[in-house]
Amino acid sequence: MLDSGATLGGIVKYIENGRIPGSNDIVFLVTGLDMFIRDNGKIDTALSGLAYTGTVCGKFKTGEGKDIATTYDGINTIAHELCHVMGSP
Asked: Do the Cβ atoms of 53 and 61 come closer than 8 Å?
């Protein structure tokens, strides 16, 4: 399982440390792993994507979403999370 909150923070650190090549406006992780987030000490697994809102071209320009290879099941989630990064609430 993928800890979504920790992973987003980790991606930001990778960017800051120059470990993601190029000059990117958005960095997005697509994973096949089940995702979870901690909410008030409880683990919430009803999650298929997460992103920082309104952060395109900024320090926190990251998002992540789940997709299962060859199914394209995650396309709607990925589009949804990318819209958050671009500023949609």
From this structure: no
Question: How far from 86 is each of 3, 16, 20, 25, 74, CA to CA, in Å?
Answer: 23, 20, 20, 10, 18
Number of structural domains the chain divides into: 1
- Can you give the CATH number for the domain in which 63 is found? 3.40.390.10
Domain residues for the domain of 73 are 2-85
Please tell me the predicted confidence (pLDDT) of residue 61: 98
Contact between 72 and 50 under an 8 Å Cβ cutoff? The reply is: no
Q: How many CB atoms lie within 10 A of CB 44?
A: 12
Instruction: Convert the pLDDT of each residue in 45-82 to its tens digit.
Output: 999 999 999 999 999 999 999 999 999 999 999 999 99
- What percent of the chain is modeled with pLDDT above 70? 100
